[in-house]
């Protein structure tokens, strides 16, 4: 038995998403690149590779990881590149997408040998959190002035537009793509490729995959462009759990159970967006607040129901622990870093990586 805490990536859960991605690629002609900012746990890249076209990145480290560990097509993007990293970024990438015209101009000479693109900001998005809203007021994420972009069209062949955020509503996607066409149609007609970014929850249950794929195909045909998608969350949703063990139980007006992991250290995104973790099936007569073991007062995974009283040594499995979790895990309080394990399609659990005191020590000096 593997010692908790550990992240358990279930390949059959991954496969459900990957098969939908492959279907959309096939029907629409769009290419799908894994967004490494969301999920970069490369032990499953061999498994994912057959269903996707490559990776996209947000930094030198990610573009290198994508190139070396995933392979296939590698897109480089960053909010801003530094002079000291640009050559290495280009050495790992098939395309480079600049966030601004000034970055494109700064690195124009260095990037003549690679396919170049620019991020556009359509100033509409589906985000309800300003923290994650690329179209927020004064956003630094991409260019929006068509006249300015027209002047550099001889230097680029495509665009990246990311304005969907956790969008599970096809009609909203469709409307926003319509907005993009109305605003940027003249630019899109000059492009050879367009990446529509991530944030589209098309692998979720009941998403109208055929309508989605047909809309992508129609878009591609109208402008004569190769469409790319950059699914992060959609690639890995519902594939992974954080396996924990109860260390202590208390009653302080509510039943509390403290587990051997921490939301602050191991599922930080939930805390940032003030969302509860998920436990399944979350049914039974015994409600508990599941608490993390860091000293942060609000280190709380959430309140859930269990069929029996919880006691020290019981296992609690936190659901949906792949996206924006493993890439953000940290050593707060020196809490033991969850190991990483994979559940193979036949149910076998394979330990992949454990983290030691030396990993903690070396991350600090
Ligand atoms: C440019 C870009 N592409 C892709 C993604 C992946 O988004 P998601 O994980 O929601 O699919 C993001 C997320 O912020 C992004 O900024």
From TrEMBL:
Localisation per UniProt entry: Cytoplasm
EC number: 4.1.1.96
Any one Pfam family match given in the protein's UniProt record, by short name: Orn_DAP_Arg_deC
Segments forming domain Orn/DAP/Arg decarboxylase 2 C-terminal: 189-321
Reactions catalysed: carboxynorspermidine + H(+) = norspermidine + CO2; carboxyspermidine + H(+) = spermidine + CO2
Domain of life: Bacteria
Keyword DNA-binding: no
Cofactor entry: pyridoxal 5'-phosphate
Enzyme class: lyase
Keyword list, A-Z: Cytoplasm, Decarboxylase, Lyase, Polyamine biosynthesis, Pyridoxal phosphate, Spermidine biosynthesis
Primary role: Catalyzes the decarboxylation of carboxynorspermidine and carboxyspermidine.
Family the UniProt entry places it in: Belongs to the Orn/Lys/Arg decarboxylase class-II family. NspC subfamily.
Subunit annotation: Homodimer.
Record protein name field: Carboxynorspermidine/carboxyspermidine decarboxylase
